Amino acid sequence: MEKENIYILGIESSCDDTSAAILCNDRILSNVVADQKIHAEYGGVVPELASRAHQQNIVPVVHQAIEKAGIKKEELSAIAFTRGPGLMGSLLVGTSFAKSLAYGLDIPLIDINHMQAHILAHFIDEKDHNKPPFPFLAMTISGGHTQIVKVTSHFEMEVLGETIDDAVGEAYDKSGKVLGLGYPAGPEIDRRAQLGNPKAYQFTKPKVDGLNFSFSGLKTNILYFVQREVKANPNFIKENINDICASIQYTIIGILIAKLKLAVKQTGISHIAIGGGVSANSGIRKALKDAEGKFGWTSYIPKFEYTTDNAAMIAIVGYLKYLEKDFSDFDVMATARLKL
Ligand code: KG4
Ligand code: ZN
Q: Ligand 1 in contact with 12 (CB < 6 A)?
């Protein structure tokens, strides 16, 4: 007998992207993301504005996802939504919407941990993408998170280390602000880094024990360095922007790879998967490819659209939980500081 198709609607609204996706089993039928340009004017995400924009976007985004998938909403098997972690006002929009739609359609509701979803995005069925074998190490790097996680099964995850202050994406964005680049600055620093000399300037690497990270000291170090140089030469940034970006990127990638090396040494696991917005970075991608030959690691790098916040990653966890009949009560609450 042929297996029944499971259709999951995933909804993601934890930060500043409103997204809805439909999966048929582990295959994507649609993945719609509406990002919020408004925050660029403020140089960072403004929670109140994010929440309001989610309210405007959620109905058209879900509608589009269903339409693009070519199914009817009555065919949905379940609705999966991001419960946390994230901004409370943003999470509430997705949570309430998911609850009312699941209630109206009389289908199961499945709450999802956003960090687990960044990791399990690797289990979306994709041509040319190998799923990592268990156990593997996952490094989630974005504007909101920096973690190294030991993944023993789809649902057994242990955080081995995480940032004690800023996330790595914040280090990019805040350094970019010092240099007068737009928000978010990560992609621009990455682009310029490829044109500059990574060893032009040296920044101090944070000294944090074990597998934890710290990026706030680096940010201050870059700020003081730039202020000092600009005092001596007002055109310093303009004349050296590519070298500055290359040196920042070199320092950050060095920190990430050093922690991964330690994690491999401590666990004996050398399958490494990355996720989160910063995994789009050309430096980390290259470093992980190089590590295959240099250290014998196997690296798993997701397709770009599954690295930044998106609902396909929420829907794949929804599908895996659906198979386990791991459904949520309708009184489940959005949880801003949800742990992995
Ligand atoms: O996953 P994401 O879209 O949202 C969060 O959950 O934060 O990640 C956004 C972050 C921003 O800090 C942005 O600057 C960074 O990812 N980012 C990059 C690159 N592309 C995006 N950082 C470095 N290099 C890139 N190519
Ligand atoms: Zn995220």
A: no
| Whether residue 94 is found in the same domain as residue 160 | no
Residue 139 lies in domain: 131-301
CB distance 64 to 102 below 8 Å: no
Tell me, what CATH number does 294's domain have?
Answer: 3.30.420.40
Q: What is the pLDDT of residue 300?
A: 97
| Residue 136 sits in the same domain as residue 247 | yes
The total number of structural domains that make up the chain: 2
Q: Report the run of H or E that residue 11 belongs to, with start and end.
A: strand 7-12
Based on the fold, state whether residues 164 and 178 are members of the same structural domain.
yes
Q: Whose CA is nearest to atom 10 of ligand 1?
A: 143
Query: Would the CB of 308 count as within 6 Å of ligand 1?
Result: yes
Residue 269 and residue 169 share a domain: yes
CA of 11 to the centre of ligand 2 (A): 13
Which residues does 244 contact at the CB level (< 8 Å), separation at least 6?
A: 179, 196, 200, 201, 226, 237
CA-wise closest residue to 210 among 150, 144, 261: 261
Residue type, 109: L
Q: What is the pLDDT of residues 16-41, one digit of tens each?
A: 899 999 999 999 999 999 988 878 88
pTM above 0.90, yes or no: yes
Residue 11 burial (CB count, 10 A): 27
The first and second tokens of residue 230, run together, are 């600009």
- Tell me the C-alpha distance between 66 and 57, whole Å: 14
